[in-house]
């Protein structure tokens, strides 16, 4: 490791000077300023995850690097908010020399797992095992330019979605979009829709886990320049028909939890919602909507490009590393095998839905 010392703190123990250095380092990075990488997200996780920590690397008496993480049993470490955080990594001064395994030792960690490592992570990139695409919508030239490109790439898709939006207005009632809705009832409605969607598709219900519900509730009230909770709602006839909760910085809207009322599925309200989100984001000076990793038809339809994210782990020799391998690697490799074969992936998705129907 560099000649600097390392302190391991709870997120709430960072002083204002350290948080300021964190933000300055993020501002100097060439990577998109994803709000998951800001100190506010780590602080919010710290309020609901008692084992949340931040390793602070000092150089010349000044904070020069930060590694937010969570410490599990037997010293197994993981990226902060792993399981819900869509962008992960260290925040460090360019050129900072740190030996990852020595840093883990200073944190009393046997391993550090990540599954959405941001690109250009010199410290952790050598330990990546897989690369995945994160789908993005670029509106830096404005929404009109994005819509023009969408019309050229997918004319039937855009024409059909806009026609459904008009039909929704005629048959259900006036369509209204709110980019930053503050009504707590709307957030509760979104979480209920999302829970039902998870169960319907045979996936684990994230909102059945108390810490995730509390995290989202806390972030909904977060208002910081580079990390602000944003609830967007599409209304028709005065009732919500689709909603999304995510985080935004001054330049990136990190799309996180989208859902819609299945009673209005024929109008494709989720697609309409995303078009209105892209329009509002561009109007607020936001240039990028990050839809995250994981294939989905709506992402393929809306995206303008992809950014790489990485999955992997740093391990130190010993029992903890062996436990990490046994706990994660066989499942990760099996999932990767299925994902790389579309027919198998489709079969797995159908099997999950069938299992969900049997449980109901």
Task: Describe the protein in words.
With 360 residues, the chain is an alpha+beta fold. It folds into two domains: 178 residues, Aminopeptidase (3-Layer(aba) Sandwich); 147 residues, Aminopeptidase (3-Layer(aba) Sandwich), CATH 3.40.630. It contains eleven helices and 14 strands. Strands 1, 2, 3, 4, 5, 6, 7, 8, 9, 10, 11, 12, 13 and 14 form a 14-stranded mixed β-sheet that branches. Helix 4 packs across helix 5. The radius of gyration is 21 Å and the shape is elongated. The N and C termini lie far apart (54 Å). The C terminus is likely disordered.
Question: What's the layout of helices and strands?
Answer:
Blueprint: E1 6-9, H1 16-28, H2 39-48, E2 52-59, E3 62-71, E4 76-79, E5 91-92, H3 100-106, E6 111-118, E7 128-138, H4 143-153, H5 155-171, E8 175-178, H6 184-200, H7 210-220, E9 223-224, E10 227-236, E11 239-248, E12 252-260, H8 269-283, E13 288-293, H9 297-302, E14 305-315, H10 319-339, H11 342-359
Parallel strand pairs: 4-6, 12-13
Antiparallel strand pairs: 1-2, 2-3, 3-4, 3-5, 6-14, 7-13, 7-14, 8-10, 9-10, 10-11, 11-12
């Amino acid at each position: 490791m560099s000649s600097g010392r390392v302190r391991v703190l709870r997120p709430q123990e960072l002083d204002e000077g350290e948080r300021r250095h964190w933000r300055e380092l993020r501002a100097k990075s060439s990577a998109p300023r994803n709000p998951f990488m800001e100190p506010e997200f780590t602080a919010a996780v710290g309020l609901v995850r008692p084992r949340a920590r931040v390793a602070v690397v000092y150089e010349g008496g000044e904070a020069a690097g930060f590694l937010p993480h969570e410490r599990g049993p037997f010293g197994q470490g993981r990226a902060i908010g792993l399981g819900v955080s869509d962008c992960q990594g260290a925040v460090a001064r360019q050129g900072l020399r740190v030996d990852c395994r020595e840093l883990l030792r200073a944190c009393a960690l046997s391993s550090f797992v990540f599954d959405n490592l941001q690109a250009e992570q010199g410290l952790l990139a050598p330990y990546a095992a897989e690369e995945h695409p994160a789908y993005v919508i670029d509106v830096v030239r404005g929404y009109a330019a994005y819509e023009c490109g969408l019309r050229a790439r997918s004319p039937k898709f855009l024409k059909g979605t806009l026609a459904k939006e008009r039909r929704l207005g005629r048959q259900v009632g006036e369509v209204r979009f709110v980019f930053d809705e503050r009504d707590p009832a709307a957030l509760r409605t979104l979480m209920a829709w999302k829970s039902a969607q998870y169960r319907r598709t045979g996936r684990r219900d994230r909102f059945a886990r108390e810490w995730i519900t509390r995290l989202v509730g806390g972030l909904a009230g977060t208002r910081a320049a580079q990390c602000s909770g944003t609830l967007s709602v599409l209304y028709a006839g005065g009732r919500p028909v689709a909603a999304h909760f995510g985080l935004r910085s001054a330049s990136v809207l990190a799309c996180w939890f989208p859902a819609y009322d299945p009673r209005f599925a024929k109008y494709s309200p989720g697609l309409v919602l995303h078009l209105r989100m892209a329009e509002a984001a561009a109007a607020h000076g936001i240039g990028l909507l990050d839809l995250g990793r994981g294939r989905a038809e709506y992402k393929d339809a809306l995206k303008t490009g992809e950014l790489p994210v990485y999955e992997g782990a740093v391990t130190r020799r010993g029992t903890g590393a062996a436990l990490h391998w046994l706990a994660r690697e066989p499942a990760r490799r099996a999932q990767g095998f299925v994902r790389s074969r579309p027919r198998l992936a489709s079969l797995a998705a159908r099997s999950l839905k069938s299992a969900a129907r049997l449980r109901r």
